[in-house]
């Protein structure tokens, strides 16, 4: 196995993805699909408004002092930007701004790339124990977030004719 490979952590993350996907397909997607597009997008964006939690990676004692401060800052600030973009998307959808859907696209692309970047750079750290109390973020919260990003993309990519036929 590669150096830094931690089977229990990998299985935990895989379990997070599997469970998130099963719950989404079984319970969330059928309900979301039945909603008007803007309401569904607003609900999914609301979940991402809590991404300010990533700022905790920069709090002393939350993570190991050996965790790279560059990594912690990147995760923290990236998540804060995603949270602000989610709130902006919610507002734009609620107030029916003409640019609401482009804002949702920006939020969803930024949020997805930010999470994938955090996983990519997190793997290079090698020791998930350095995440300290933050271990639950990549193991539980990020899989939920990524699955919801996929649902947002599915809604955004649905054509008007498909939407009207449903």
From TrEMBL:
Keywords: Membrane, Transmembrane, Transmembrane helix. The keyword Transmembrane applies. The chain crosses the membrane at residues 6-29, 41-63, 75-93, 100-120, 135-157. This is Uncharacterized protein. It comes from Bradyrhizobium brasilense.
């Amino acid at each position: 196995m590669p150096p830094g490979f931690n089977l229990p952590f990998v299985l935990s993350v895989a379990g997070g993805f599997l469970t998130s996907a099963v719950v989404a397909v079984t319970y969330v997607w059928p309900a979301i699909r039945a909603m008007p597009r803007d309401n569904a997008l607003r609900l999914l964006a609301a979940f991402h408004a809590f991404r300010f939690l990533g700022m905790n990676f920069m709090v002393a004692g939350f993570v190991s002092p050996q965790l790279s401060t560059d990594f912690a800052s990147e995760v923290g600030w990236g998540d804060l930007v995603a949270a602000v973009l989610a709130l902006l998307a919610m507002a734009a959808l609620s107030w029916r701004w003409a640019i609401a859907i482009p804002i949702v696209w920006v939020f969803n692309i930024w949020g997805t790339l930010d999470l994938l970047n955090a996983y990519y750079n997190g793997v290079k750290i090698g020791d998930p124990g350095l995440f300290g109390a933050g271990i639950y973020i990549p193991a539980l919260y990020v899989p939920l977030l990524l699955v919801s990003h996929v649902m947002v993309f599915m809604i955004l990519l649905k054509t008007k004719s498909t939407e009207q036929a449903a």
